[in-house]
Records
---
Amino acid sequence: FPQKKSLFEKGSRAWNSPAYNTNGSSDPYCIVKVDNEPIIRTATVWKTLCPFWGEEYQVHLPPTFHAVAFYVMDEDALSRDDVIGKVCLTKDTLAAHPKGFSGWAHLTEVDPDEEVQGEIHLRLELVPGARAGRLRCSVLEARDLAPKDRNGASDPFVRVRYNGRTQETSIVKKSCYPRWNETFEFEVEEGATEALCVEAWDWDLVSRNDFLGKVVVNVQRLWAAQQEEGWFQLQPDLPKRRREEGNLGSLQLEVRLRDETVLPSGCYQPLVQLLCREVKLGTQGPAQLIPLIEEMTSTECRQEVATNLLKLFLGQGLAKGFLDLLFQLELSRTNEANTLFRSNSLATKSMESFLKVAGMRYLHSILGPIIDRVFEEKKYVELDPSKVEVKDVGCSGLHRPQTEAEVLQQSARTLSAHLGALLSALCRSVRACPAVVRATFRQLFLRVRERFPSAQHENVPFIAVTSFLCLRFVSPAIMAPKLFHLRERHADARTSRTLLLLAKAIQNVGNMDTPASRAKEAWMEPLQPTVRQGVAQLKDFITKLVDIEEKEELDLQRALSLQMPPVKEGPLFIHRTKGKGPLMSSSFKKLYFSLTTEALSFAKTPSSKKSALIKLANIRAAEKVEEKSFGSSHVMQVIYTDDTGRPQTAYLQCKCVNELNQWLSALRKVSINNTGLLGSYHPGVFRGDKWSCCHQKDKTDLGCDRTRSRVTLQEWNDPLDHDLEAQLIYRHLLGMEAALREKHQQLSAGTGAGPTLTGPGEAPEDRLAQLLQVLQDLREAHSCSPASSPASEPNCLLELQT
């Protein structure tokens, strides 16, 4: 019974952070760490003291995490990046805000004595004596200590203090995974209340030792147990006096922690079957439950509920039917064609989620080259005469500056070229569009044409399609390519303006160049010839897109399923060993990797024939590698077995922390059900005659750190987690259970009103009664779930939006 927790962090923004550059500004970015491990790096926002990131993330974690911290950094090209400040939220703080933490949080100084991480393995014993007992403390080992030295490691030793006496272990050089196996004894009187303090330190020859963390043990507790052994989380020292609050600026966050217990699949079958029957009946007649869910869902929750329902029905092969049901509901309450799909209804939110889940790869193939060109050219583009800055443009010849008219003319040519290229790419992409997307657009087109059949509404079916394809999918991706994974960084001000104007142009085309859209911004007139031509192109494209028969749809779906699109692909650097000794001399060679549901493969170029490197079923772990091992903090290792069953390790280098975590996430997801997954691993390398991490001399020695197979990022191309989606829908329905019972009473008394209508052969109150019974059964199943027991080891889902 896995238990999942989720943390939402949304819309991060910093305010009034101190200037770190000579020009009076900063180049801030944000690092998100969970228990001091970096998992996310936002894009850098250049030359500002008030950055806005608006990036969204979701992270799955084990339940043992303690805190999530947000570090605001200043990027520096010539030296190490400066730390501006941080905001740290503990798990207890987040749990105290069930609806989420939202607001401005003051940045605090980063105190080295508080930047501790890792765990220490202790065995504690109380040996009774005639007059006084003996307190025996065995310091066995530590793992994942903070690297304090330039070599990416530390030289740790442990100081044990009790009742005024202090004893120390030996020093282990160059390791964050030391092993001591040393025991210390102290006299202790019966009933003594003094605490035992175990401190980890990094030894330095020429400067003061660095604090690595401490554990304070309540000796009184040991009198009953006599012995205790385990891993103890290292804690920071007492906080020192800080600067006055607010001097470092503030960070705006929306963070939410959820705790979900996911039951076995069989428990959700009645709920899934009930909702699926609703969709199947809804395509033939009026729906009952889905309208109620929409009616009782607040605007704030609608996007989340739409996404959960959409993913559930995708997993059941009913996404097209679910969206068709929503189309019918929307059309039944729409009288004016020009307001169709313009509100934030369940239909619009579900269709947005559908396009992101099913059409993101398609979007990348169309938009990717155009977006890359805009970023690379960095041309000054402006159509609004009131915003033209001639001084920013440069000269047209050797000496003469360009005039405003020349700037506007050149801008129109540039935008027309980009718009034309985009429309041409779109029009050539009919066959590349996923079959399920084509089928859904076809159903939307037909439903709208049935609802508005008159000649005066001949463009309405086309606008219905473009309202989603152009206005809610392509245009937002153009304006914010970073948020749609089209670019790694946000655009600078000049590129951002070009993208905004291009997005406006594609919106005008999507609106079929109506007088209303033209009247909004008259200065867009220079693009009208391209827009008018684009309207004709787009109508022709949509006509071909929706011209798909049921047999062709099935053939397309079958062809797509045989293609097995990669889970993740891209360039990585693979370790190549030179010389006779293991890792005596090493280098990394750039290759193009592709991860499918069968294997991790590589090729010399993206178009070359791929060779399998690792079979998916043979993966045993995918983990990070210590920075000191290869001089980079972005190296991962894939531990696997070859065809003879012997363990092997592939070392792959990524270009940034985000790419590293994305690859680790993808590898862990596709191998999560493999047999023989490792529980521990070596974060270093076996160099010469020992492991660089823990200095053990046996290459087959048990790993010195625990694996993190449950730590994954949630992405748009993730495999569907049917049980989790069902649990999230159940949780949402549980929140509206009182309103559902009241509606059931009204319907049973014959006084119900609203969108629910009688379906074929079944009264609306009957189906609602079934739903209420399903909720009750699930609530009882949760109360009996062993996941609620303290002895269980639940999973934790950490969802981040930033």
---
Amino acid sequence: MYPIKVTIQVLLFCILGSYAIAQTLKGTVKSTTGENVAFATITLLNSPKGTVADKNGSYQLTLTRRKYEVSVSAVGYATQIQQVTMTDKNTELNFSLNPSTQDLGEVVVTADKTEQNLLTIPIAVSSLSAKKVEDARIWELANLTAIVPNYLYSELGVAFQQIQSIRGVQVFSENPAVATYIDDVNALDIIGGGFQMADIERVEVLRGPQGTLFGRNAMGGVVNIITKKPTNRTNGFAELSLGNLGLQRYNAGFKTPIVKDKLFFGINGVYSKRNGFLKNDTTGLGKTDKNIQGARVGDEESLYGNAYLRWFPSSKFSATLNVKAQMDKSDATGFMLSVGNEKLAFANPDKIYLTRIGTHQRNIVNTSLNLKYYGSGYTLTSVSATQAIGMAYKDVDFPGYYHTFREKEIGEMLPPQKVFTQEFRINSNAVDSKLSYSAGVFYFNQTGYEPTTNLAYELAPGMYAAFRNKTVNNGLAVFGQIGYKITPSLELTAGLRYDNENRKAIFNGFGDAVFTNNVLTFVRPDSTVTGKYTAVSPKVAINYIINSKSSIYVSYTRGFRAGGVNSQRLPKGISQTFQPEFSDNFEAGLKATGMENKLRVGLTAFLINWKDLQFYNLVAPFTYARENLGDVQTRGLEFDATMIPVKNLELDASLGLNSGKYQDFKLTRVDFATMAETKIDVTGKKLANAPNHTFYLAAQYGIPLAKTAKLSLRGEYRSVGQFYTDLQNTLKQPTYSLINTRINLQVGKLNAAFWVQNLANTRYLIYGSGDTSFGRSVRMASPRTLGITLNYGF
């Protein structure tokens, strides 16, 4: 009882102790023409305090004595940040906001796990606001391609079987190379991705390794998604989207204070359904079910929910409970399906060739509790999260027939993958201190049943070879980062992270288990293999603030992707484990605003040395396993800009240039024609899934029709340069371009948008084999899609 008593006493002290001597901050929010801005959102950066202005633009906050950064935002206006120092007197702080059609406003990001002005941090970040997410119709990660310089998205049939590539750093396995965070929760496994993008506050894409603060699997970068939180203002929305290919998408949300300034509730949900664009062709495939000739393949159905409960018992303490859940299913699945070669796919982009049409279902639930205590000059944070993922599929023609299996029946729902993560962190929050810091510990525990290694392979009707694989992983990391302002303009940042990870796999080999006539028989007991891995991830950066409108920086960062266990039986003397990958990133960047805040630009140059790539190799006669095979060096330039050249016209542009090659990289394979062992040297070949350029240009023009009515016209052009999907550089995706358009009519609180994605109906690969020595397989991207979206907010 004693520890519990002490914990309660400490918690009460934190809550009650915050009711120290406090004063009032009040003011008004007006437009530059003097009109009151109703219901503007007032946020104190790195503080739980915030409020919403009333209908007259007036606000009031009770604050303790210290310096704050106050951010004010409102629909139709540019965000503004001001500093204020609270003393023993009440303080007045007024805001005069420019229309967003004339001023880009200031951008707040959490790239360093604290809220900061984008201009002041030495990291290459692409930040997309809620408005840009809506205008660009970003419903999924695939829509980020080319908007973010040097970003490429690929997938094999479903959104949770994805490859994200940043600057060419990518992978396709259970451990991603680009970390995806949603509201502070990391999707450790690739199957944990694919959440619906709904009710988004902003999307931040950190380009380059982020190992020091974000840890494992962030060697390519981080996609950080932040959803909208409830505030003091009751609001909600309902949205309907309909389109071709049977598209239906229903999205709704509601947020309200339960107790003003203290307790808040928010919820939103999405139901979406869409038909696949592929038609099955069984011509020449032999005896098949006649009903599947011409049948549709690739149907998708998804149900998503996101609920918040936020509690602010005092000015120094906050607690946020969040639950996200999603179910994805299909009776005509595209999971793991592809076409045998790219010539056939480009000749018939809407066809697939299957002898069975399969099904799949994935269930995922994320629960997190975020606790924060705001002290004098520091913030303590605890983020606890659990994740449960269940997966089932049946009759997947790969070729051959595959079904999920563990012990009961083919196509069964696998035991859920369970993940627990815990992070404790302390960050400085003093606005005017020379010293800033972030330090903490991170722990994770993961028990998984990976769906592509827990399956039944059909040998004959009623007879299956059973593959089983259970993984038990855990890790502990300690990290710290310090920034020191040598002068008011020059800041030095240094960070270090140490990771210690343990992995265990319990699995069987081919023929070790059979499932016949609904009876599972073990020919040989399961094998158990363990591995232990450590990694050190340093960071050094120098940032120079030229003036209030521009800065330059140089940095070195290291990233790593976790090592692992080959979950297959290997001959004695052959290592069952493989080591982590590492990347060293050297970067220089410039950030600037100009033209009276009508222009914002970023320019970055980078060099990456990517070492010890994990890839399948011949390790024994006719036996392949993952090894650390070789290195890659890639270099490039990135440019992004936003501009308001004239009133009501906004331009967005980005350009990524990338040149990467394999170094000292040799594959060992079997020539199946001669049965001889062969060596394939890919040294000097271009890095796979790394376009030589990405280019994006968007123009949006608003036409005021009345005081409460506006018409917006938008056009987007995206170009993705030529790249190879395979190491051997034989499977090529030529340069392709996409044109997207959107027309939006806003009348009061109602929006009606007509949009077209891929207007020219360009056909290109969304996936291609990473290694063509085992054969060629590709998957075509969706054709032209168009639809209408109706949104009503209150």
